[in-house]
């Protein structure tokens, strides 16, 4: 019997269907040709060719790929997870690009939108012709989105929106923003064309993490919209939280890719670099670290694939997603930090992917529910006692 493959030790890829493997290969190939050679530059300059990327992702069928109809591919949840994994093996910012488009902006319109809103936006968003963003977080409302101050009030049959959203991915390049606001009737979602007078997106500068991703402050100053701009049915936090759950699902797969890339970089580096007359990988302390990385990468991959199967079976609870996000992001960050040490001085350079991943994963630990929020969700799940406030 052959020894296990160091790049897929538990042979997890054997569990994938033919379609899932095809998608894995297509995304890997695209990532290797179009993304990996450029990502260090994008990261260093903090600039991203968003329109070009959107077109490429659209042609590959990645935008809203797990949604049905409106030009979306309608793949399994597992296939979507695998695509996120392969994208995030290059950079968390690129996976965020696809997550925000498909799982936040498009999903929100697909799940909660009127027929007119769906027909107007989804086909163009699936091809990448129109980018979307998702505005929930505010300067003073992050983990506690219920305390948001953005307000939508009625003026005749119109809505008028005022407020500020913060840390909004793709806000500066979006054609449409899904904005959540307080109304007399509870929190509601609005489909806001970003060309509407009173809407401004300002780039967030000075980020030290997720630099290959565009982040914005959205200012809504008397943004007047027709009555048809509101999502018709949904009220309260259920609306945005339902979308976040979709995006978190992509994250718990994505970070397996980031962890795998760090492990592979550390393995390759320590096998080729010699100190004290032999490869670094030949020292016991290095092997201990490699074994720890291997275990974490495979454990998180196993968790992701189990959660993927639960989602496709229709039995996934959002507490499972909290489990996966908490466990896999923490594990990827541990892997990245350990791998960073194994590359010595080269570990801090953009010539290697490890520190870039490590720094990105600090954002991933925080957005889509911080580590603490997911711990509290799990705490409530197992004790029935809410400890959020
Ligand atoms: P806070 O909520 O202020 O939390 C600060 C710390 O306090 C955290 O450690 C938190 O866990 C802890 N804490 C808070 N409450 C409690 C409690 N009850 N018990 C214990 N600890 C607690 N948002 C969007 O809406 N759309 C986007 O596209 C988007 N993209 C983002 C991109 C980037 C690069 C980043 C960094 C963020 C993005 N976010 C986005 C925002 C993100 O979701 C929030 O940053 C996140 O929800 C945390 O909110 P906060 O930063 O205000 O932290």
From TrEMBL:
Pfam families: Acyl-CoA_dh_1 (PF00441), Acyl-CoA_dh_M (PF02770), Acyl-CoA_dh_N (PF02771). It catalyses: glutaryl-CoA + oxidized [electron-transfer flavoprotein] + 2 H(+) = (2E)-butenoyl-CoA + reduced [electron-transfer flavoprotein] + CO2. PROSITE patterns: ACYL_COA_DH_1. One of its GO terms (molecular function) is glutaryl-CoA dehydrogenase activity. It is an enzyme of class 1 (oxidoreductase). Coiled coil: none annotated. Its EC number is 1.3.8.6. Pathway: Amino-acid metabolism; lysine degradation; Amino-acid metabolism; tryptophan metabolism. Residues 19-129 form the Acyl-CoA dehydrogenase/oxidase N-terminal domain. Residues 235-382 form the Acyl-CoA dehydrogenase/oxidase C-terminal domain. This is glutaryl-CoA dehydrogenase (ETF). Residues 133-223 form the Acyl-CoA oxidase/dehydrogenase middle domain.
């Amino acid at each position: 019997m052959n020894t296990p493959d160091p790049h897929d030790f538990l042979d997890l890829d054997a569990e994938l269907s033919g379609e899932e493997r095809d998608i894995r290969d297509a995304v890997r190939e695209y990532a290797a040709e179009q993304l990996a050679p450029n990502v260090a530059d994008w990261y260093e300059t903090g600039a991203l060719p968003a329109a070009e990327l959107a077109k490429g992702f659209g042609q590959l069928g990645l935008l809203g790929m797990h949604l049905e109809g409106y030009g979306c591919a309608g793949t399994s949840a597992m296939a979507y997870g695998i695509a996120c994994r392969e994208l995030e093996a290059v950079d968390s910012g690129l996976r965020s690009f696809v997550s925000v488009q498909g799982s936040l902006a498009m999903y929100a319109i697909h799940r909660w939108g009127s027929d007119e809103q769906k027909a107007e936006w989804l086909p163009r968003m699936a091809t990448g012709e129109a980018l979307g963003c998702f505005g929930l977080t505010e300067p003073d409302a992050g983990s506690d989105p219920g305390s948001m101050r953005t307000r939508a009030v009625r003026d005749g049959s119109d809505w008028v929106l005022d407020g500020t959203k913060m840390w909004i991915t793709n806000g500066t390049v979006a054609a449409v923003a899904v904005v959540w606001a307080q109304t007399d009737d509870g929190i509601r979602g609005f489909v806001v064309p970003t060309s509407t007078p009173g809407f401004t997106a300002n780039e967030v500068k000075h980020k030290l993490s997720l630099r290959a991703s565009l982040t914005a402050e959205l200012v809504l100053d008397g943004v007047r919209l027709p009555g048809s701009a509101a999502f018709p049915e949904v009220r309260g936090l259920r609306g945005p939280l339902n979308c976040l759950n979709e995006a978190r699902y992509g994250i718990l797969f994505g970070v397996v890719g980031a962890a795998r890339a760090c492990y592979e970089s550390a393995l390759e580096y320590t096998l080729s670099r010699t100190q004290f007359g032999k490869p670094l990988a030949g020292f016991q302390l290095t092997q201990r670290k490699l074994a720890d990385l291997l275990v974490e990468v495979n454990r998180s991959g196993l968790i992701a694939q189990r959660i993927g199967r639960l989602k496709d079976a229709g039995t996934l609870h959002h507490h499972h997603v909290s489990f996966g996000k908490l466990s896999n992001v923490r594990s990827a960050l541990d892997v990245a930090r350990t791998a960073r040490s194994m590359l010595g001085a080269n570990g801090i350079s953009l010539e290697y992917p490890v520190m870039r991943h490590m720094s990105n994963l600090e954002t991933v630990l925080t957005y889509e529910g911080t580590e603490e929020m997911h711990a509290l969700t799990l705490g409530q799940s197992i004790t029935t006692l809410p400890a959020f406030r």
